[in-house]
Amino acid sequence: MITITLLLLAAALAWTLARAFNLPAVATLLLMGIGLNAIGLRDVAAIDPEVANDAFLLGLTFLVFHSGTELSPGRIGRRGATAVQIGIIQFLVLGALGMGLAYLLGRSVTVALYFGLAIAVSSTLVVVRLLQQRRQFFEPFAQLLVGVLLVQDVILLVAIALIEGSQQRVQGLQGALGGLVVLVAMTLVFLRWLSPWLLLRRKQDDETLLLILLSVLFLFLGLAYQLDLPLVVGAFTAGVSVSAFPVHGLVRGQLNTLTNFFMALFFVSLGFFVPIPQLSAWPTVLGLCALVLLVTPPLVAWIAERAGMSARGALESGLLLAQTSEFSIIVGVVGVASGVLSLDDLGLLTMVTLLTMLATPFFTHRVIIETLIRWHPSTRMADPLPKSGHVLMAGCGELGFTMLDLLEQSQHDVVVIEDDPGIVAKLKARGVTVIRGDAASATVLARASATQALAIISVLRRVEDSVSLLNRVGGVPTYVRVFEDADAQRIADAGGFPVAYAAATAERFGHWFCGSMTGDCKDPGLPPEAP
Amino acid sequence: MQNIDLLFSLGIMILSATAIVLVARRLSVPTVVSYLLAGLVVGPIFGFIHLGAASGLDGTQTNQVVGLIGEVGIVLLLFLVGLELSLEKIRDVGKVAVIAGLGQVLFTAAGGYALCLLLGFDSMTSLFLATALTFSSTVVVVKLLDQKKELDSLYGRIAVGIFLVQDLVVIVALTLLAGLGDATEGVSWWALAKAFGGMMVLLVLVIVASRFILPRPFAWAARSAELLFVWSLTWCLVMVELAHLLNLSPEIGAFLAGMALAQLKCAHDLRRRIHPLMNFFTAVFFIALGAQMDPVSAADNWWPAVVLSLFVLIGNPLIFMIIISLGGYSERTAFLTSVTVAQISEFSFVFAAVGLSAGLIEPAILSLIAVIGLSTIILSSYMILYNHQLYALARRVGLLRIFAAKDFDEDPPAATLSDHILVVGMNSLGRRIVEILHGQGQAVLAIDTDPQKLRDLPCRRMQGSAEHMSVLEEAGLARAKMLISALQIEDANILLAWQAQRHGLPSAIHAFDAFVVEELERIGVDYLLDSKACGAQRLQQALSAAGVLRP
Predict the structure, then answer these.
(1) Region A208-231: what's the mean pLDDT?
(2) CA of B527: which chain A residue's CA is closest?
(3) Closest chain B residue to A487 measured between Cα atoms?
(4) What dihedral do alpha carbons B267, B271, B273, B275 form, nearest 10°?
(5) Which of A79, A104, A344, B322 has its Cα between 20 and 30 A from that of B85?
(6) Residue B410 pLDDT level (bands cut at 50, 70, 90)
(7) CA–CA min distance A234, chain B (Å)
(8) Closest CA to A325 of A296, A364, A299
(9) What is the pLDDT at residue B509?
(10) Mean pLDDT of A329-351
(11) Residues A279, A283, A286, A292, CA torsion sign
């Protein structure tokens, strides 16, 4: 048990590091594993390689199973077309470039193919966690990103299955394809009928629920094995088969800690076993990193903007996707298992993943984004509008149109700053003066003659943006819509007038509750209801 | 893939266990029994027939890993028990636990030895059999009590105390046994001293740690679910290693580790999170245990098997009833506690295996012990599961009057919430709603994953993720009046709306953006907290008041 203890201790330290310095946990777990190796624990044999090996295997299985459970078909559906577009194009471009680079640097075609595959996808774990931490997870661009990541996971697994299958002498490509079809069919059967039947029809207790989930996993693993497909494909499809709502909600509760436990063991033991690339391999490492870090952002940003995303959202998406994935490591593991790749190759791929993952939080920092956005054509310095005494709306959104009506009724000249191309088009159609851009940026505000405005109304999503705006317009009465009370304080401190709508919502609810739930509310203790 | 064997073994074990559990549920069979049966079914496939070293499994590396998983399962189980019970709770029942535990060991050992001699076994065999019969199964009982959520009751605590005492006795027995085979007397006394001294050291460490060392780091870690989880597990395993160094059992180490954390506010949430992991690993343990048993070859010894099983099933509880009633506890507590000791321990197999490999007993005896183990574990599982009903029956039949125990109620009635309102998500909206409802005199329960957000609230609070069914159950969803979610998390809100529907509860869910509204309306909520619309309204009011908007 000392092996597990040491691995867990390393994982605990890794997670602490990650939390303290805002780094991706996957990266710190890998680092810790490498650290364990570096301090010579391997020689001391404190860590039993057999046990670590099995921990690694179970970890891999649960990691991929977990990824499958996140693949809710609904998530891709909403912005499906764009997500698929971005996912596929990034995959193909990076894959091709990666393969080319590897080939140029002396690898065989097959090995180069695996390398290309490995750098073609971005990390679901890192990106989702980053978005959640920054409370951006439910912004539209974030939802799109999640869709892209899930599409990539699927494409990658299909690619792995086919490539591995085509190497099998027994059945080759057709066999693999056929096997995939069977597996997918089984997944659909589960999704539609079996999972809900098993998990929902009677209120199963926790233990039975867990047993059923694990059985589904092992069933699919067995099926994949029989079909001569890589086990990771089985684990993934098993996850997908329990990913639909509302089954997924029940699943998550049971699997969360299991996944965390095994994931920790997986990455730490990987870092422990995998050799650090030798000097001769570093050009490849750095070359692949450069490819990922320099090609992904402009590529993704370009496609996203063409598909109708705001400039800032597109840029942020591109930067967020600039890393390789835990699945890249899985490609390496599969390659090693089938003998195509060497352990050194796996070490190389792991290092690329580690480095690019570590770079992500810095790459996507506000400062970098704001600096880069200034280079965007739409924010080029243009002449300020010849206006003063107008009312400036920073952000419009769906509800802004009502505000627009009221302002126009009060005989105001209105200028709107908005980033969403769809809403910009609607505003232009109404004949409203609209500037497309990021309302927190100095150039855009200058163009809108913000300092000459009569009043500014901000419904920007992020409170940091409103604070930036306030700092740039000083003196103009600015009304900012905020949700949290703490944010209201920040706005007030920056000189604006906060309109806290959480309290408003709660009070309206209070009135409804009095009216319908408890009958007569003698003294609800609420401000009188607004008309 | 590297080592398919492990996945294959685990797969077969889990699949068979699930199949049996799904069927057996209908017959109200305890899961422990289902696991044992599953093990019996798949045992022959793996050749888990010969018992080996301490982990109980021999041979292939896969079997060793399976054994390791089982060990970790037991560690987690005892860790959970420790988390549930604090030092104070154990101190209360300390005296009776020690007396009852020791008393039962003496009685069963002596009585068992005599009985075996009567049945015709030689003295060495009788000694082994008697020792094997003496110890009750911590793992089985604790698992059942945990399932019934009765670990915290008085009888539950006494039972746990007794098992821990027995654990110490086991250590003594093992050390002495090692000394028997070793013939260097000096070594075994030192080992014993190490064990007892070690126990003291660990206890002191636990008290110091729980009061001074652990609270602050763990409070910091509690803000992140994974951090808390992984550090707790690490702490547990480190304590287990420490216990190992001090010649104590891993169970004691894990239990003490849990006790050290029991004081912390996050203990409750932690227990909930560890549960699935524990369930998985202990399932493997029990299945592997069942797989090791070879009941068929005990056919020749069926008569001793019956007699000795009855001795354990009836004799052990009997002696307990006497001791505990004498200790002044109520008749009910005495009965319920007694029922928990009516089986032999999985450790008995280990003990017997050691004896077999040392050439002190025959293989047939091993099978005999296996049969006794199986039957007593299965029957006592039922007894524990239905202990309250059994008690009622025994009372009615007048069986218990002999013990002349007092008749009163010791466990305070649990304060359960009902007719309350659940509010999930303590952001500004959630907090304001809590204030409003509380101001109107409603019973409110606030739920959030972040302990910081639960500070300074006038109502009852619960830390946990409302997406998990166990959290909702504990929050009393079934008895609540309404479910409100102020969260800004789409998935969680949709799930909560669905859960409310499923339980027939009215719900008010935060529709924080247009795209959430559609889903929520499809599922059906009673009130949509449309924060953006309210925000727009307030904005208009503010602008009108400032004169920007003119009527």
Answers:
(1) 90
(2) A509
(3) B428
(4) 170
(5) B322
(6) low
(7) 12
(8) A296
(9) 93
(10) 90
(11) negative
Instruction: State whether A507 and B10 contact (CB < 8 Å).
Output: no
- Cβ atoms of B259 and A24 within 8 Å: the answer is no
A5/B contact by beta carbon, under 8 A? yes
CA–CA min distance B529, chain A (Å): 7
Chain B CB contacts of A481 below 8 Å:
535-536, 538-539
Q: SS3 for B505? A: coil
Distance from CA of B28 to the nearest CA of A (A): 13
The SS3 call for residue A436 is strand
SS3 content of chain B, % helix, strand, coil (to 5): 70, 5, 25
In angstroms, the CA A467 to CA A496 distance is 8
- B180 in helix, strand or coil? helix
Token duo for residue A371: 């600096």
Alpha carbons B450 and B432: distance in angstroms, whole number: 17
Q: Give the pair of three-digit tokens for residue B295.
A: 């009941």
Give kind and range of the element (H or E) at residue A214.
Answer: helix A206-226
Residue B49 has pLDDT above 60, yes or no: no
- Tokens at A510, concatenated: 């209070």
ipTM of the complex model: 0.85
* A254:B276 CB<8 A: yes
Q: CB–CB of B68 and A484 under 8 A?
A: no
Options 3.40.50.720, 1.10.287.3510, 3.40.50.10320, 1.10.10.60; CATH of B414-546: 3.40.50.720
Report chain A's terminal Cα–Cα distance, integer Å.
67
Please tell us whether the domain made up of B2-49+64-185+281-396 is placed in CATH 1.20.1530.20: yes
Q: How confident is the model at residue B1 (pLDDT cuts 50, 70, 90)?
A: very low
Q: Give pLDDT, residue B64.
A: 78
Q: In what side-by-side order are the strands of the sheet with B444-448?
A: B460-463, B444-448, B421-424, B482-485, B507-510, B527-529
Looking at chain A from residue 278 to 317, which residues have their Cβ under 8 Å from any Cβ of chain B? none
What is the three-class DSSP state of A418? strand
Which part of chain B is CATH 1.20.1530.20? 2-49+64-185+281-396
How far is the C-alpha of B278 from the C-alpha of B286, rounded, in Å? 12
Nearest Cα residue in chain A from B499: A246
Considering chain B, tell me which residue range(s) the CATH 3.40.50.720 domain(s) occupy: 414-546
Q: For A507-512, which contacts have Cβ atoms below 8 Å and span 24 or more sequence positions?
A: A507/B432, A507/B436, A508/B534, A509/B433, A509/B436, A509/B508, A509/B527, A509/B529, A510/B433, A510/B436, A510/B437, A510/B440, A512/B527
Question: If DSSP codes are grouped into helix, strand and coil, which group holds residue B245?
Answer: helix
Q: Which residue has the tokens 């932690």?
A: B270
- Shortest Cα distance, chain A CAs vs residue B110, angstroms: 36
Helix B87-118 vs helix B154-182: crossing angle, to nearest 10: 50
Contacts of A208 in chain B (CB under 8 A): 21-22, 25, 31
Note whether A253 contacts B469, CB cutoff 8 Å. yes
